[in-house]
Amino acid sequence: MSVFMDLNLNYTKEKSQMRSVIETAAHLGFSTVAINHVFEPTAKKKPEFPTPTLINELIDELPVVQGRSRPIRVLNRLTVVMSDSSHFRPNAAEYRGFDLLAVQPTTEKLFHAACMLYEVDIICVSVTEKLPFFFKRAPVNGAVGRGVVFEVSYSAAIRDSTRRRYTIANAVSLMESCRGKNVILSSAAEKPLEIRGPYDITNLGLLFGLSDADAKDAVSATCRSVVLHAETRKLASGIIYTMKTGTESSSQQGAPPSDSDAPAAKRAK
Prior knowledge:
- The protein is of the alpha/beta class.
- Helices cover 37% and strands 17% of the residues.
- The N and C termini lie far apart (52 Å).
């Protein structure tokens, strides 16, 4: 059974509304969600840097996921909207409190740097306006090779017909460059009515140009790889180790030794 995730629930100061969005996500079958804090610095005025949401203070008891016997998992995510290279600081201490780190570049130069250089988990594709640049395969393939994913959100298409055209056009342009690889679909919902079920999102992925398998991965397997990528990014490296199970070792102890295990002088000729 697939584990579905929505890694973009827009943060709102209204705690009751935030709780309703998380409860709706659990009812629709999402096992993991991320509260997204957007930071958009400008040249005129630097806004206050967001702080991670304390889940224990937001919800006393996490809702149980529909069809599963365990509560929903809630993560904190930071998205930095970049109009200048100085807006993203890779080693900033403020970033460490968030589980996921995303950037939304607004120029082609910043998009290239995000794909090839920046240590992030997600690169967001703008859905509120027509992109001022075209996606090129070289930086897109570079991001795919580094394990960075691209995100397309759909709630803007629900709110406004003009943004619906931008969402579809920008998403189709991205799919032509990345060929459906390393793409996640999320809601960016601010209200419970803006969230759609996992299979509705899968059908939306087909409209964007994804295949059946890639559309399903966009709300399940690829999202899981994002969470794992974020965990290894914090550790600076990933470590894999293997160990023998007890049943495997006991079966090997009871089995007769093979010719390859016997001494060279006693092997059968």
